[in-house]
Amino acid sequence: MTAAAVAMASAARVSLLTALPGTEVFQLEGHTALRITDNDGRDYVVNWGVFDFDSPNFIYRFVAGRTDYLCWAYPTQFFLDSYRQEGRMVVEQTLALDSLSTEAIIAMVAENLRPENRTYRYNYVLDNCATRPLAFIEAAAGRRLLSDEPAPTSFRTEMQRFHSAYPWYQFGIDLALGRNLDRPISRRMAAFAPVTLMEQLGETDIVSETTTYGAQTSHPTPTPWYLTPMAAALAILILSIAVCFSRRAARWFDSLLFGACFIGGCVLTFLVFVSTHEATSPNLLLLWLNPLCLLGVVLPWTKSAKKVKMCYFFVNFALLITLTVLAPLLGRGMNPAFWPLIAAGAVRSIANIQQCRNAKNRS
């Protein structure tokens, strides 16, 4: 390689850009992209977090785990300006790559940006905007940068770290994602979260310089205690007890309670048996939320099906007890707000069983 060629190669530079968390739920772990300054002086960002919300059946495909994301390149200034407008700081970590490694990663990214290669099947924890850049950096460096040794953490634990101000979001995750989310993972796997990747990469020798852009003025607003899932769940439990003294109110309450369980059960059934998302199956919460809960909506209003009514509520109560016994298997996936809701279902099941017994005794 001539001296002029070496000088041109050394002018090329690759760095990791991390946008710190925003206030929207999809911004809570931050965002990652690669910044590339090539030999022609072009300064652009490569972003693996681009998707087309208007693509056919986007919502269905997202829930089913069949969401395709895109690798896209655009000017760095546009990237920095967009996050500055959102009040989110961007941290740049310049990579200490030699000229050959720098050219290698630029070539690999260029190949990935080709129209036939830019689309990939997105996975929230295994293949996303953070794991993709890390894979390219490690391929160019020719070595593993982050530890594959098991760490005392899990995907759910890492998520909870970023979702503390958004308990309803974590509540939904704990409902939808089952036991696989709680398996032990390595430090490298924990870097699925962009901020975690930034922190871990900063502890290695691959980062030669760190620069920040803008100020972090976007901060999550904690959910007031009275609007949290636990507050709502406790209110539902109290109502489930209170309506025991009014048969008509009890019927309407059961319709709402078990109707919600039915809807939740349909969603869980889809996630477990249809979706290909990581960690949606198995999910023991199907013992509580399942399509059979529709019977809990209909049967309290049916006078001619006392035996079926008693049988259903007895089975439902047994399933809730079974879930309670098996709860240790759920680990951190058992959101604390689940317990008052499960108790509410148990209370209403017992109340309906007792009502059937009283009606039988009167006859």
Strand order across the largest sheet: 6-4-3-2-1-5-9
| Uncertain runs | 1-9
Structural domain count: 2
- How many β-strand stretches? 9
Report the mean per-residue pLDDT as an integer.
Answer: 90
- What's the architecture of the largest domain in CATH terms? Alpha-Beta Complex
Proportion of residues in helical segments = 40-55%
Please report which band the strand proportion falls in: under 5%, 5-15%, 15-25%, 25-35%, 35-45% or over 45%. Answer: 5-15%
Helix- and strand-based class?
alpha+beta
CATH topology of the largest domain: endopeptidase fold (from Nostoc punctiforme)
Q: What's the CATH class label of the largest domain?
A: Alpha Beta
Task: Provide a count of the helices.
Answer: 14
Q: Which overall shape is indicated by the principal axes computed on the Cα atoms?
A: elongated
Main beta-sheet strand count, sense and barrel state: 7 strands, antiparallel
Work out the radius of gyration: 26 Å
End-to-end separation in angstroms reads: 100 Å
Reading the helices and strands in chain order gives HEEEHEHEHEHEHHEHHEHHHHH
Explain what this protein looks like in three dimensions.
- The protein is an alpha+beta fold.
- It is 47% helix and 15% strand.
- It has helices spanning 3-11, 58-63, 76-85, 99-112, 131-141, 155-162, 167-176, 187-190, 194-201, 229-242, 247-273, 294-298, 306-326, 338-362; strands spanning 13-19, 31-37, 43-50, 68-75, 90-95, 119-121, 150-154, 184-186, 207-213.
- The strands form two sheets. The protein has a seven-stranded antiparallel beta sheet. The chain has a two-stranded antiparallel sheet with strand order 7-8.
- The model is unreliable at 1-9 (pLDDT under 50).
